[in-house]
Amino acid sequence: MSTVTPATAASAESAHAPAELDEPAPVFVARDSRTEQIVKILIPTVMLAALVALWAWYVKAYEVPHYILPSPWRVAESLIKDWGTLSAALLITLKITFTALGMALVGGVGLAILMSQSRWVELALYPYAVILQVTPIVAIAPLILIYAPTTQSALLICAWLVAFFPVLSNTTQGLKSTDHNLLNLFEMYGANRWQTLIHLKLPSALPYFLAGLRIAGGLALIAAVVAEFAAGSAGAQSGLAYRLLESQFRLNIPRLFAALILLSVTGVIIFAMTSVVSHLLLRKWHESALKREN
Amino acid sequence: MTIDPAQAVSSDAHASASRPLVSLRGISKVFSNGTTALQNMSMDIRQGEFISLLGPSGCGKSTVLRIIAGLGDPSSGTIEWPTSNHDASGKALPEISFVFQEPTLMPWATVFNNVWLPLRLKGISKQAARDRVLEALEMVGLEKFAEAYPRELSGGMKMRVSIARALVTRPKLLLMDEPFAALDEITRFKLNNDLLHLWEKFGWTVIFVTHSVFESVYLSNRIVVMAARPGRVVNDMAVDAPYPRDEDFRTSSIYNDYCKDASLALHSAMGANDHL
Fold first, then answer.
1. Does residue A159 share a domain with residue A46?
2. pLDDT score, position A219
3. Do the chains contact at B154 and A23, CB–CB below 8 Å?
4. Same domain, yes or no, for A192 and A55?
5. Pair (A48, A141) in one structural domain
6. Of A13, A181, A200, the CB nearest to B139
7. Are residues A56 and A105 in the same domain?
8. Per its UniProt entry, which superkingdom is the organism in (chain A) (predicted)?
9. Domain boundaries in chain B?
10. Domain boundary among A64, A90, A111
């Protein structure tokens, strides 16, 4: 048989090549239109302004004393005036939250991979992960406070315990949900465990992991606050939760509101960050990140 | 006496052609729930054949394919690969590829990376695999879509990618499990033709599972009819119509005769113990 030169192969191909003409052109997802972008920003902004205006009007119209409900201006004033104390506390809270989240990601994904590789490990460890999750953190906090070397590390452990489970359980579920046909395919092409994990199981678990990350991000902050309430730490190392309690004791309600706003904003930023990460990683291929067009 | 080189070559070629590529010897498969998916199946698959396994659902045709592919062991019986290489432990290393009913593409990977996969798992770098991947994509007419993601493609195009992935390893045996069953008829006819062209050009052996009489007659030169409960072979017929086959063949009387024969074989097999 004569060898087929690329040129003849190409021409033979094109003679009966399955031209893509008769198949629908690929559907590329359309970007948001300009107006939709504007509306997306405009509506929440207007809503926020309306709510603040309502709040300001209510305080003024009904002459609510500032130690019950301060006006938005007093809260803003307190935010600026006490920024030194509040920002230091915010930094502590952020440090605990993000360290705990980072540790939860490493621990949760690591343990999920370990459990997916060995049924024995799963049987041995999963029940304890569940027990740690279902026991209310406030109830374990006093014990942790006794055992942990410093208050900071106790807070960190509490926040980690809470954030860890969603990452673990979602990633485990994702690793188990790999398409069976793709698993067969990998087996047929002689893929080893490592290749199957890297090229198949981890990418297909990614959407599950990211859902876990979004939950864990919010929970890490909540746990950091709850743990600090339980620990009742004070002094230079105290976070926003302590400042909140302190403001309540001193009836410094504007500062309490300021601390509360900082916590909310932190939570929103964490949520937005995890959403952006999720979107960037999935936008090319996963249904959840695609715009539906009908 | 001088040996005519041409004759030597031809007799050699004949010898390898007469040795089957795969031999199934008394293959049975019983699932853990007690269902006999396959009972005592024996057949030889010769090099260059285009075999269709035709039968109703539950006749074990997909099970045969999976066993040949090495996905799951038979409960009894053996598979021999007389012409394939074997590893040190005597395990056959057949050069096979599998096309599933679903395209079975990795949604997170581009078309290029999906087709690269079999080579990547063998440790071939993207750069080294580039030419072969693009060649495989060209065979199925998708060379312009290398950087697209599977979701951007139509059902037929996804199936083409799946076929390109099967071809990139240059297999000797191509196993296809109802690959076009989920496609519309127009796309299916087109892919039938494209598959035949590629087969004629490259001369692999194909085992094609289908439940369509028409598809099996159009494509294959041998049809193995199977029946269910228990899964078994009831007929093994040759389709002696010349290739290349095209739309004219689809409307010819010889095509119709073969379709009639195959339908009869299928229905007599189903009639025996099937009252569904």
1. no
2. 93
3. yes
4. no
5. no
6. A13
7. no
8. Bacteria
9. 46-95+172-276, 106-171
10. A64
pLDDT at B9 over 80: no
The rounded distance, in Å, linking the Cα atoms of A129 and A146 is 21
Q: Which residues of A touch B144 (CB under 8 A)?
A: 20
In a domain, A206, yes or no: yes
State the Cα–Cα distance between residues B183 and B191, nearest whole angstrom.
10
Determine whether the interchain pair B98/A185 forms a contact, defined as Cβ–Cβ distance below 8 Å. yes
Give bridge partners of residue B237 from the DSSP assignment: B223
pLDDT at B92 over 80: no
**What is the mean predicted confidence (pLDDT) over B223-239?**
88
Closest listed residue to residue A132, CA positions, set A102, A167, A97, A177: A167
Four-residue CA torsion sign, B148, B121, A283, A277: negative
**No. of H helices and E strands in chain A?**
12, 0
The separation between the first and the last C-alpha atoms of chain A, rounded to the nearest angstrom, is 52
Element (H, E) at A35: helix A34-61
**Mean pLDDT score across all residues of chain B:** 86
Q: What is the pLDDT, as a whole number, of residue A15?
A: 38
Residue A3, domain member (yes or no): no
pLDDT band per the 50, 70, 90 thresholds, residue A134: confident
Give me the helices (H) in A118-201, please.
119-134, 137-147, 151-176, 180-188, 193-196
pLDDT per residue as tens digits for the range A90-118: 999 999 999 999 999 999 999 999 999 98
- Check whether residue A38 and residue A145 sit in a common domain: no
What is the mean pLDDT of the segment spanning A135-144? 84
* Closest alpha carbon to A155 in A216, A106, A214, A221: A221
pLDDT at A11 over 60: no
Tell me the pLDDT tens digit for each residue of A243-276.
998 999 999 999 999 999 999 999 999 999 999 9
Q: Is residue A201 part of a domain?
A: yes
pLDDT at B272: 55
Same domain, A212 and A255: yes
pLDDT at B271: 63
User: Do A145 and A49 lie in a common domain?
Assistant: no
Please give the structure tokens belonging to residue B267: 């229905």
User: Does residue A9 have a pLDDT over 70?
Assistant: no
Domain that holds residue A39: 30-64
User: Based on the structure, what is the number of domains in chain A?
Assistant: 2
Q: Which of B229, B247, B260, B210 is nearest to B51 (CA)?
A: B210
Looking at residue B92, the DSSP 8-state letter turns out to be B
Question: Which fold does the domain B46-95+172-276 belong to in CATH?
Answer: Rossmann fold (3.40.50)
Q: CA-CA distance, A229 to B155, in Å (whole number)?
A: 56
Whether ipTM > 0.85 holds is no
User: Is A191 part of any domain?
Assistant: yes
Q: Which residues of B fall within a CB distance of 8 Å from A12?
A: 201
- Is pLDDT larger for residue A195 or for residue A13? A195
Q: How many C-alpha atoms does B183 have within 13 Å on its Cβ side?
A: 25
